[in-house]
Amino acid sequence: MRKLFPIFAGIALMIMGVVACNLPSSNPSQQNPSTIMTAAALTVQAQIPPTVAFASPVATFTSIPPLPTAIPPTLPPPASPTPICDNAQFISENYPDNTNVAPGANFTKTWTFKNIGVCSWTPSYAIVFSNGDSMSGPAVQALPGNVNPGQTVDISVALTAPSANGTYKGVWKLRNAAGVVFVNQFWAQIKVAATSSGFDFHTRAASASWVGSAGAITFGGPDTDPNGFAMYRNGQRLEDGSTPSKVLEMHPQWVDNGVMTGIYQPYTITAGEHFLAKIGFLAKADGSCGAGDAIFQLSYSATGSPPWTGLGSWTKTCNGSLQNIDVNLNSLAGQNLRFALAVLANGSSGQDWAVWVSPRIEIP
Q1: Torsion from C-alpha of 104, 107, 166, 164, nearest 10 degrees
Q2: CA pair distance 282, 63, nearest whole angstrom
Q3: Which is nearest to 143 in space by CA: 83, 88, 95, 84?
Q4: How confident is the model at residue 27 (pLDDT cuts 50, 70, 90)?
Q5: What topology does CATH give the domain 88-192?
Q6: Which of 18, 297, 321, 328 has the fewest beta carbons under 10 Å from its own?
Q7: Domain ranges in the chain?
Q8: Where does the pLDDT of residue 34 fall: very low under 50, low under 70, confident under 90, or very high at 90 and above?
Q9: Neighbours of 200 (CB within 10 A)
Q10: 199-362 maps to CATH 2.40.30.20
Q11: Residue 76's pLDDT is what?
Q12: Measured distance CA(99)–CA(94) in Å, rounded
C-alpha cells in the first residue's frame, strides 16, 4: 500500500497544477459588471435561432388624370315674343252659368274683356252669335266704342229666356274689322225654372159655381139630389181599390145624358204648367165596379161664360183602374182664365159616381 501512495500523490499534484494554470488571474470580486451582462447577452443571442427576413409588400396606385373642366354651352339670347295684334283676356260676366231665369223674362248678358293685344279695337269689331240657343239675341252686334291696348270693355247683348223649363246655352265669338275671329268661345247659359203658385181644383171646389142639367146646385150634396151633386169623397174606396186623400165626386143629373159642371175662379197660367189628375169611379159597397160610364171634360174661358174652349175630353168606364190625365198648358202662359170641370153621363147616369183624383194645375 505504501508503494502506491507516492504514485497517486504525484498524479494529484499534476492535476492541480493544470487547473491552476487555467483559472483567471484576476479577483472575481473586481470584474466589471457590464462585461458580465455583455457576455450573458451574447450567450442568449447565440442560443436564438436566426430570424428569416420577409419583404413588406408595397401597394402600387395608378394615378387618375384630373377631369376636364366643364365648359357651359353658349345659349342664344331669348327670342323676343312676336306681338299679337288682336288678343283678349276674359275678366268677368254677369248671369254666371246656370243662373235661374223666369220663363220669357228679358235679361241683359254682359261679358267684360281686356284688350291684351297691340291693336286697338274699334266699332268695326263685333260680337257674333255662333251656335246653341240664341235666346232672341242679335246675330251680330258692334262694339260700343274704341278699346285701346290695356283697356277693358263691357260687351252686352239683350236676351229673352225661353218659355219652357230647361237649360239653355248660346255661344258667341269676337271678331275684328277684317272678319277674323280672335275669341271664339264665350257663352250665356241659363236655367229656366218657372215658379208656380199652382191651382188646386179639389181645394177650391167649395168656392166654384156648380151647375147641373136642371140648373145651379149647392156644393156638398146631398148625394140624393135628383139634380145631381158635387162633393168631397176623400178616403173613399175607388174602383182600383185605392183610397186617395183628395177625391172630388161629380154626379150628373139623374137622367140619361145628364151633366154636372163646376166653373172655377180666374187663374193666370205660368209657363210650364200642366193640368194633372186621375179620373175614375167610386167602388160599390163590396169593392166591385158599378156600371159607371161617363165623359170627363176640361175647358176654359177668358170670361167664365161662353164660348168655352175645350182642352180635353175622356170617356171612361168602370173597369178597375184609374186613368191619368196630363194636359200641357204652356200655350196659355200669361193668360188669366177660368177653368171648368164637367162630367156627362154617357147614356144612363144610374151609377155614374164619377171622381177626379187630385185635379190641379202645376209645373210637373
Answers
A1: 10
A2: 114
A3: 88
A4: very low
A5: Immunoglobulin-like (2.60.40)
A6: 18
A7: 88-192, 199-362
A8: very low
A9: 14
A10: no
A11: 64
A12: 9
